[in-house]
Amino acid sequence: MECVGVEDLIEAVKERQAILFAGAGVSMTVGLPSWRTLVQHIAAELGIDLKDIPDGEINHLTLAEFYRLRQGSIGPLRSWMDRNWTIPEKALKASKVHELICRLDFPIIYTTNFDRNLETAFELHGKDFVKIVNAKDIARIRDGVPQIVKYHGDFDDDESIVIAETDYLDRLSFESPLDIKFRSDALGKTILFIGYSMTDLNIRFLLHRLWRTWAGSGFERNRPQSYVFMLRPNPIEEAVLGQWGLKVLTERECPPEQALEVFLTKLSKEIGRK
Prior knowledge:
Rossmann fold; 7-stranded parallel sheet; 7 strands; Uncharacterised_Sir2-like; DHS-like_NAD/FAD-binding_dom; SIR2-like protein
């Protein structure tokens, strides 16, 4: 990460005026299974031969929807995910990415991950936090205490989990309590997205709606700069996200699997230097 062009990000994090939005890539740095693993598990449990389905014609959202129809509930799948997507504390303690997230001290962290790995990392590093999954949790917010907002739900609450196709389509209304909270939080702060491939339709729609809100206000020039960190350069995404007011950051001089740690390390050092 070059310092040029990210001064706003450095200053916003230093002044605790930045929101972190963390995706699956954060937990994958410590061994979280991929969506492909989930697809394979559902197929095996339901007796589906994936060889009969051409690549690209099925995704985990549709397959999870089929699972719910067949099984009557997402509960057993949630239980399997909970068992298999929980990273051992030893691995989390050793995770430089999770340590850096704790050290950077964001006042609010939104995550689309269902797992408890961020919460566990905070506990292991002795940091207090408030977990927010639904509307009643918002009343538990305390001044000065970081918030971990489980934007797509949490393993402790089956009803909160956004995993099947219907769940995603329902969220496109962008009017759930957590959506309203995000709009309120995000309008006046810098946002840093990490751990995303940016193929998540909900996230893209969220970004588009936030851009439309600012564009319609007549004060778009006053919008704080926000950023997306990507593991590899992608000029197409850079152009599309750029029109929505997001700047794409990458680490070009290191392997993709090391890029997020390198980026967060440089960000932390720059803030310390400031």
